[in-house]
Amino acid sequence: MTLADPAAAKSALRMFVRTRRKLLAREFPEADRMAAEVGRGPLAARFPDPAGKVAALYHAAGSEVSPRRLADQLALAGWTLALPSVEGETGAMVFRQWDRAAPLSRDSIGLHAPAVDAAIVTPDLVVVPLLAFDRDGRRLGQGGGYYDRALEALKARGEVFVLGLAYGGQETANLPHEAHDQALDAILTEKEYIAVKV
Predict the structure, then answer these.
(1) pLDDT tens digits, 74-118
(2) Measured in whole angstroms, how far is the alpha carbon of residue 117 from the centre of its chain?
(3) Residues 25-48: b if buried by 16+ CB within 10 A, e if exposed
(4) Pairing state of beta strands 161-165 and 186-188?
(5) What are 178-198's pLDDT values in tens digits?
């Protein structure tokens, strides 16, 4: 799809890719397990010593690929886990330490997040959901811009590795993009690990 206005092109595409993701979720109910297995080697190679490192994941909503199995794998390897939380009047996304034994709360946009007394942490790895991706590392999200703003702030402070978690069928060539869109470093699907070449 090519439109002169990338924002309009993204809006037009979202309805289609949401429907496609729902169909993929039915077709690949074990995608979370498969993706965790596919990602085991590449993530271990990228982060050979995760001690002291923080991995931010997300609480899956709707047809998103669940990162729960990946979270189990990362925790066993020694990572500290975190979840995003959208907070405050500005709707800034922060990352709070995730104690998986503690109940989750709802953040300001209704997503499951750790309680507000959980420590805010700076992740080394951020696993993000998406509606569509391409092999150049572009990601189409829900349109709120929360991840883009949070990732821009993290990148300004230091190195962070951004991993998109998706069904392989969510790949969409030549996604429209805007200057503020934050690129993925890699994409993990139930079929493969795609390292984005810069």
Answers:
(1) 999 999 999 999 998 889 999 999 999 999 999 999 999 999 999
(2) 23
(3) beebeebbebbbebbeebbeebbe
(4) parallel
(5) 988 999 999 999 999 999 976
Residue 23 binned pLDDT confidence (cut-offs 50, 70, 90): very high
Map tokens 């995608």 to a residue.
31
Quick one: which of 188, 196, 179, 176 has its CA closest to 135? 196
CA distance 34 to 18: 21
| Residue 71 tokens, joined | 């979270």
**Which structure tokens are listed for 89?**
């009047």
Q: For domain 6-195, is the CATH number 3.40.50.10420? A: yes
Measuring CA to CA, which residue among 116, 194, 110 is closest to residue 146? 110
